[in-house]
């Protein structure tokens, strides 16, 4: 429970699956309206419910993927072929799109945006409104803000 309101699931798995690196990912469907997502909208693919929070307005859109121990939460939007995997954390008001890859133990937070085939990996952190794009790679030990 959050406050006095009962916790309510915001998505379910559909029957559609895809395989990535030997993992089975499940397409998601919205169970309620939130942000720009309407009940019944089809989302992207996640491996398990631990990948995408049922709270707030975070969402994995149609052709994006989240798997492994990666977690998307807060108000993050993952779309346009982006992939979040391994132990990566993406949360807050974050946009990850246009084939960007977030993996390893990387973290994307606080109004950051990663796009355009960019890769953020290792234990790199992108936060505080930073933008990373156009084939940029940020790796272990780097922080961008």
From TrEMBL:
Output the superkingdom of the source species: Bacteria
- The protein's organism comes out as Bartonella grahamii
Give the Pfam families listed for this entry: B_solenoid_ydck (PF18836)
Q: Which Gene3D superfamilies match?
A: Hexapeptide repeat proteins
Q: Which GO terms describe its molecular function?
A: acyltransferase activity
Q: State the InterPro entries in the record.
A: B_solenoid_ydck_rpt (IPR040831), Trimer_LpxA-like_sf (IPR011004)
Protein's recorded name: UDP-3-O-[3-hydroxymyristoyl] glucosamine N-acyltransferase
Q: Does the keyword Protein biosynthesis apply?
A: no
Sorted keywords for this record are: Acyltransferase, Transferase
